[in-house]
Structures are given as C-alpha cells and as structure tokens.
Design goal:
By secondary structure, the protein is of the alpha+beta class. Helix content is about 55%, strand content about 15%. It has 3 domains: about 1-105, Tetratricopeptide repeat domain (Serine Threonine Protein Phosphatase 5, Tetratricopeptide repeat), CATH 1.25.40; about 115-180; about 180-240, SH3 Domains (SH3 type barrels), CATH 2.30.30. The chain has 10 helices and 7 strands. Strand 2 and strand 3 form a beta hairpin. It starts with a helix and ends with a strand. It comes from Rubellicoccus peritrichatus.
C-alpha cells in the first residue's frame, strides 16, 4: 500500500503549495498545470521553466520534476526534485518521487552523511534561527542573572538547553553546507576532465543523473568529486548545481 501511494505521487501534480507563488506568476503556474494534466508535457516544462527566475518555489521545482519524469528525462527530473527538497526538505512526497526517479534511471542513491541526515529534519532557515536565538539566549543567561542575583537549577537547566540546541543547529547548518555543494549530471556528455578546458583529456564520464560534490569552479567548469571518489573537471553545460 505504501509503495502504491508513493507511485501515485509521481503522476500527480501538487496543488497544495500554490500559495507560495506571487500573484503575477499564478497565471503561468495554472497554465503549466493545465498543460501537464492535458498530457502536453513539453509545453508544461517550458511554462514551469519560465517561472523559476521569478519565484524560487518548491511547488514549481516539484511539478517540473514530475514533468521531466513524464518526458523520461530522468537526469533533469532528479535535478528538479533535489531543488525542491532544498526548499522543502521534510516533504515525503518529493523524497519518494526522487527515489523512484533514481530507480528509473538505474542509479544507486548516495548515502547521506550523518550531518546531512540531521540537516534535512528542518529547513535551513529554521536551523539558522535556532542557532541565533540559542546563542544569544545562552549568552544572556550567563551574563545577566549574576547582575540580578538569579541563581538556581532553572537557570542552569536553561543554559544547558541553549547549549544543546545550539550544538544541534550547528550540526544542521554544517549538513546544509555540505548539501549546498551538490550537483547533478544532466547529460551523458558529463565528462570528467583532467583540467578545466574543453580540449583536456577525459578520465571518465558521470552517469546521467549522478550526483557529485562541487569542490571549486574555474570558468565554465566545476571540479567535482563523487561518493565513489571519482573526480575531475566537468563542463557546466552538462552538470548543474542544485543550489544556484
């Protein structure tokens, strides 16, 4: 039953978070949804793509991922689902559709690090707010109570709580820092080259839809490393960062 519900998600369009879009983009969003539901997937993809520069929305990325899935362009679908997860990391429907698309592309999902596992429990902005509030709250609890003569277990307990929450939020932010380096090969021409030039010898190729961590950039090339320790310079025409 669970598997069946996950599969339903890949064919459905999310209307639950349309409110994220501003008024001047809602017309194109609805038009794209109508094209999708009519089976005009290429037109729907074009319309969703026009929305991205205007409004970074998990709804748009998610629906665009579904559209590319229907077009059997699995690498681009994976990229869009990853972008949607960057904005809505706790959404189980997006994560399920990403997994199904990776399976369709015959890719083995990369195991996340423990810091990344912690990070995706909440949005990056939530972690940032927790870190700020607990840091200054803990500082205030250390500095101010002696001035007022406030002592006791309640104060100590609040300080410990602030320290623990600050530590966890720091782990979450570190995880997001790692996730921010993620990129996806969107073509079978994603060659790993020895140097950042088009004439450089090719060491090997990334699989379409394969993820890699961006280490640095030079001109039109990214130096990337995969979980299997494959590394090299890849042309940005064939490899796209998730966080851009």
């Amino acid at each position: 039953m669970k598997r069946f519900r996950m599969k339903l998600g890949i064919f459905g369009i999310s209307f639950l978070i349309v409110a994220q879009l501003v008024a001047n983009t809602s017309g194109n969003f609805e038009a794209a949804n109508e094209s999708y539901n009519s089976g005009e997937y290429e037109k729907a993809a074009e319309l969703y793509e026009t929305l991205i520069p205007q409004k970074q929305s998990s709804a748009v990325f998610y629906n665009l991922g579904n559209t590319y899935y229907q077009l059997q362009d699995y690498p681009k679908a994976i990229l869009q689902f990853e972008k949607a997860l960057a904005l809505a990391p706790t959404n189980p429907e997006i994560r399920a559709n990403l997994k199904l698309t990776q399976e369709a592309a015959q890719l083995q999902p990369t195991e996340p690090s423990w810091t990344e596992v912690v990070a995706v429990k909440m949005n990056v902005n939530v972690w940032a707010w927790i870190a700020v509030v607990t840091f200054w709250g803990g500082a205030a609890l250390i500095i101010l109570p002696p001035l007022w003569g406030w002592r006791g277990p309640i104060k100590s307990g609040l300080i410990v709580l602030c320290v623990l929450l600050f530590a966890v939020s720091t782990i979450g932010l570190v995880g997001y820092h790692q996730l921010a380096k993620l990129g996806i090969a969107i073509s079978d021409e994603a060659a790993l080259k020895i140097s950042p030039t088009s004439t450089s010898p090719t060491k090997e190729y990334l699989k379409p839809g394969e993820s890699a961590s961006i280490q640095r950039k030079h001109g039109n090339f990214f130096f990337v490393r995969t979980a299997e320790d494959k590394e090299g310079w890849v042309d940005s025409d064939f490899f796209k960062p998730v966080w851009d």
